Model the fold of this input.
Amino acid sequence: MQKILIVGSNGQFGTELLSELQGKFGYDNVIGSDKKEISNCNSCLFEHLDVLDSKRLEEVIDKHEITQVYLLAAILSAVGEQKPLLTWEVNMQGLLNVLELARSKSLKVYWPSSIAVFGPTTPKKMTPQQTIMEPDTVYGMTKLAGERWCEYYHQKYQVDVRSLRYPGLIGYKSLPGGGTTDYAVDIFHKAINKEVFQCFLSKDTLLPMMYMPDAVKATIDLMEAPKEKINIRSSYNLAAMSFSPSEIYNSILRLEKGFEIEYEPDFRQKIANSWPHSIDDSHARADWGWNHQYDLNSMTEDILKNLKAQSLVNTAS
Done:
């Protein structure tokens, strides 16, 4: 039986991955952990853990006899530009701490990369798996360096490390976490609350995006794929859909009449301008059978339905 540790389980993605893995492997076999002492679930095993504390990380791994580590703890793009040195320390040293323990304890590792590895010189349309990568954000720099470390540990030490380059991830179960694409999370909350949405990107900023259930499925599918199917050990391109703020606004407007949006681009616009418009993920589809389920309209319908249901429950309680 696999024993899984999620480092950074309180985050937007960690919240949903934790729940899915518990359903698959059982509550006693999936341990959440985060720098925040309060767990995001009432029934899971949880450890207070700072990924920079390698001694504490090893203690938790040994205590629970961990066989797989999902390293999600990171500082994201927008916050990263405000705290560049801390971002480098957390994102890089955290990964190296996990890779070193994986090497010595034969652990299987999942580490997320991002479209932030690409930069202004990268081809914008159907960005290929192998291409020019010159990121101009600290977050992107940490992801590019992290990809090289992952491949290095696999080649030199045979660590079974796997990774995906996520597009912008959109979910409704937790609040935005400081990413440039998080406008596409916040916009749904504003629509439900009948508030005018102040968008920090321009209306035609086209970016690759993905609904959280697809991202969770892709992550678990990659980790469960046979070793011989995994031909890329840096990080796989991953894609589902691309849209702009005006397109997601119009998708919501179909169901929430009268919803208003205003565009006030800030420093995050420059970050978004450096990223691709669409992604070629043919390697993931060919190697281990990746296929997405949700497009923009089906995602919009599902999020609004669930947020309204949550609102009714909160009102009743």
